[in-house]
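[audit] Reproducing an earlier prediction to check determinism. Same input, same settings, fresh worker. If the C-alpha cells differ from the archived copy the diff job will pick it up downstream; this log only records the rerun itself.
[audit] input (546 residues):
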Amino acid sequence: MTDNKEQDTEIHPLKSEEGVSPASPAKKGVCVGGLGLSHLSSWRTAAFFLSLFLCLTIVFAFSFIIPCPVRPVSQHTWSNTYGDSSTYTFLAVTDANNDKVMDVIFAFRGSSGSLNASCSDEGFSSPCSFLVAVTGTNGSVLWERALSQELLWAQCGIEKLGGLEAAGCLVFQSQLLTAIDSQSGVTLWQNNNTLELKQPAVTIPDLDEDEVGDVALIGAAGDKTKVVIVSGQTGRQIGIDTDPGISGVLGHVIHVTSSGSYYLLFKKDSAVYGYALKNIIAMAIKTPQSNIKLQQDPKWEEMTNSTSGSVPVYNLGSVQHLLKMVIQGKTPENLLVVTGHWVELIDGQSLSSLWRVNITNVISEPVFGNFNKDGVPDVMVEDEIGNGTKKVVILDGSSGAVLWEVKLMSSSTSPKPSTVNTTDYRSAFLFWGEVRGETYTTVSLNQQHFLYLLHPSYPKVLLELNNSTENIAAFKAVLFEKSRHACYMLLTGPTEHSQTGSVSLAKRKLKEDVARSRVVRLSQEEGFSDQEIRDGFFKLRYSSSA
C-alpha cells in the first residue's frame, strides 16, 4: 500500500496527502478567481495600446507642426558687385547669422550701399565707408552700416565683445574706436582716443571683474608708443595711457609663456622686445604690481633688462614679420621671425633658435599649413629672387628643411598665399603667380593673376584654378561649413580712394574650380592623366583642424 501511495504521489505531484485531487472544489475556487484576473489583464492590455496610440499620434502630429531644421542651401559660386566704389584690404569670416555656415564681413567706400542706403541718408558726406556682412550661402546682405569717418582698420573675431556670446568687431576711424555686434551690425560701445591706434587689438584677461575679457590697444603719439586698455564690456578706458618706454614700433603681438604669463611683444625694425603685461597694467592704474593678479614668468624675468624693463626677444636682424606658430596641445606658441636675410623659428619659452633658413627677400607674410603629417605646422614663404621671379618655398616646421619649392613669375600686386586643411592631416596650399615656361609673358602677369592649388598628394603637379585681371584687394581660403564646403573669397577693385570703379566680392567653391582647372606639370614624373589628377583633387575632403 505504501508503494502505491508513493507511486501515486509521483504521478500526481500536486495531489495533497488528504487525497484532494486537482479537480476538487477548492481548486475550482482558484479558477474562479483567475477569471477575475483575466478581466484585469485585458484592461491593462487595452490601456497599453491606447497609450501607445496616443504617443504615436503626438509624435506624428508634432513632426508636421514643428518640422526639422532646414539645412541652408549654399550656392557653389556667387558674386556681389558695387559700382563707382573703392574697397579696403579688410576681409573677415564669421558665422553672423547662426546657421553654422560662415559669413563674410568686408568694407567698401562709395556713395550708397546695396540696401539703397546712402551716405546722405545717415547725415554723412559722400562718399563714405560702408561695413557690410553677407551670408556665405548666397551672398545676400545680412546687415550694412555707413561709417561717419574714413575707415582706418577693422578687426573681427574678438570674443565676448560687449558681453555678447558671439565674437564682435572693432572698427577704428579717426580718434573713434567702435565695437560692433557682428550678428546685427549695431554699435555695442564707442571710445574716443586721440592716439593713432594700431592693429591688432589684443584680448587680455578680465581686469575690471565684469566677467568679460578686456582689450589692449597699441597707439602712437608721435614717435612714442602708448598702451591703452579698455573694458571689453563697455569700452571704458581702464587707467591711463601707458608709455612702456619704446619708440619706433612697427608691429606687436600678445604672447603667453608656459607659466601662463602675458607679455606684449613689440616689433621694431631691428629687434623684438617683450614687456610684462602685469607691469603695464600696474602703470596704467597706478597700483603696486603686487595688487595685480597676473603673474610674471620667472625665466623671462631673469632675462629682463633692469633698466628698460624689457625682455630682449630677438635682436639679430631687421625684422619684417613676427608671427606665432600654433602647435595643437603645445604651450607656449613658438615665434616665427622674418628678417631681411632669413626666416627663423625661436622657442616661445627659452627664446633659443630652433632653426634658420636663408632667404633673399620675403615679399609677403608667410602662412602656415601642413605638408607632412608630423603635427607641426609647416611654413610657406614667397621669396623674391630677381628679374620678376619669386620662389615659393614650403619649409618643414620641425627642422626648416625645404619640403617643396617652385619658381614663378612674380607680380607685386599678388595677394599672399592661403591654406585650408584636409582630412588626411595635411593642407591644400593656394598661391598666385605664373609658372615659368608657360605661354604667358611677364607683361601679361602685370595685368593678370593666376591662382594655383597644391596638395602634398601630387607634389609634381599644380592646378590652375582661376585667373583675374582685376586688382585683388583681399584673398582667403575658407572652410564655410565644418568638414565640407571649402571655398576661397576674392575681393577685387580699386584700393586707392582717389580712384573708383567696380568692386566685387566673390565666393568660389574649390571643387567647382578643380573640375574645370588646367593641370600644370612641374615634371613628367607623375604617371597620371590630367583627368585622373583632377579626380584626385576633387575627392579631397576638408577639415576645420589639421
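[audit] rerun output stored. Observation attached for the diff report: The chain has seven helices and 31 strands.
[audit] end
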